Amino acid sequence: MNELLLKVENLHAGIDGKEILKGINLTVNRGEVHAIMGPNGSGKSTLSGVLAGNPAYTVTEGTVDFHGLNLLDLLPEDRSHEGLFLSFQYPVEIPGVSMVNFMRAAVNAKRKYFNEEPLSATEFLKLMRQKRAIVELDNKLASRSVNEGFSGGEKKRNEIFQMAVLEPQLSILDETDSGLDIDALRIVAGGVNKLKTERNATIVITHYQRLLDYIKPDFVHVLYKGRIVRTGGPELALELEERGYDWIKEEVDRQL
Amino acid sequence: MNSKHQYIDLYRTNAEAIDSGSAPALNRLRPQAAAALEATDFPVRGAEGYERTDVNAMFGPDYGVNIHRLDIPADIAASWRCDVPNMSTLLGVVANDAFIPSASLESRLPEGVIFTSLRRAALEYPELVANAYGSTAPLTDSMVALNTMLAQDGVFIRIPRGCRMSRPLQLVNIFSAPTPMLAPRRVLVVMEEGSEAQLLVCDHTQDCNRSYLSSEVVEIIMGENARLDYYCIEESSAMTSRHSQLFARQESGSVLMVNSSTLTAGNTRNDFTVTVNGKGCDTRLSGMVIASDGMHVDNSVNMLHLAPKCHSDQLFKYVAGGKASCAFQGRILVSEEAPFTDAYQTCRSVLASPEARMHAKPQLEIYNDEVKCSHGATTGQLDADALFYMRTRGIPEAEARTMLMQAFMADVIETVRMDGLRDRLRHLVEKRFAGKDASCSECHASCRERHTDPNND
Asked: Mind listing the domains of chain A with CATH numbers?
């Protein structure tokens, strides 16, 4: 075990000339679940965006190794093919592009990347059916435009459905619990747990401990002012839930 | 120097030949048209409504006009390539400016329906044509004057009172001539009281290496409670210029829908002038422009509400890439006599390259208080968030862009009320955005391929 999947070293990145990540170090092995917590504005979403390759961010320093590849050199689409998945905090609505066309394009792009033939219509529909069941996603959504008119819960379930279809090695779940009621949360978390294997890994980005009741982390990191300022086990999340972030902020600010 | 003069000279020196190749009901207006054109110049670039289109440059080159009605061979069979799958139409072809009916067209038309050459109609039904011809297109407009001065033939459509056509009419305009040519095209549509019809017009150019210019005037007269769906698809070539003007007059309770798609073209200007004269009318105008390379496409709408309780809706969408330049002018006028008008206008554009240009000018002129009107014009780029989202799912950027551009056009395509045509347009748009020349591989320019490989039909 302990096979390395992701190694982030001294990552600095920002947007519009403003530095947000100020030296992130993070190591994720296969089979692990990491939680990244932190107060608003600490850089959590920037980290997920940079790892997924959002062109809005500029990386100024540092390296990211993803199972032997230089992740920062890859296009967002190739990061996806190579097994990186980002579940969006706010899944984007794409009017006019149907879910089914969207997923077919995604699945076949990946197959093309690995020099495989596109799936036949029958194979594709079978795959969709199988994967939908994991998050109890309604078949009616397939003919609708991507995320358009979906409820908050449907959007998040749709993210996990896409994750199930693409079978990533590393999933980054950005605030997947936001906007979810308790039933939807259980379904989404249940989906994530069903997809967990000893070969893949998950990074859960969240404000609250609540989600971690359902998706059990092996490690909990606290991100503050663009750095990981503390790392611990699941008990750290419980402590944060109880005491808030202020004590960590004070500790860090004192040191700076 | 205004480029109208060469055409006035052409008319003055050939008036007799032009008249003899036409019919009295059309010839009647020619001297007036010539006088009107002498009195009014072609609009200059930069004038109100012509900010982006240079009519003088369009009409400046020395084009031939087929005033002696020479029989120019055209590959009419190729027009069958415009077949819309699952749609059986009553087809007529206009080769340059001459109408050619499809085989046994007349015998397949319902009782009382006329779909024929304008010249022939003017000879056979002189009163009918004379009453309608020039009744909506004013000679005070220099471009109308030019067309009226030169048009010798065209298309005449009459749907009689109460007749509801079950099969759509289709008109295929083809450019095919061995020399550069100007074709004055004229279409006259008379929808009598309570009649219903659908008309699909396709514009094509057979020889993509020659330059052509069409001066088109379409007149539509909508009787009380008449309904017409008018679709126009241009898939011409980079060397084709098109100056098209549609004038419609609506009497009370009539329902008109005009849908214009410009998929490939050279230099295109489309004017749509709809005058609502009777109460309770409904008007839908929609347009889709996909411009690439050096294409120029300019749509101009004049929606004139002169009667109460009418509704109009405009939706125009553009995707401009390459060095394309596009324009939209949309004017809604609500007169004092038109209370309780609902009139809306939307123009949305996507610039898909740094050098593409869009000029949008929405205009509202309202002269009474009892109206609901709105207009909106936006020009932007593809949604960066959507693009990134798709890429994180593995969809390559180019493909994601294509999907987004296609999706952008979805609501304009949805306005099409003929199922077969809607599917066809979706397909054409998909091919167009995928960088395949829809017209040349699929429909028309395969005539070009036919020339090189006659066995490949």
From this structure: 4-255 (3.40.50.300)
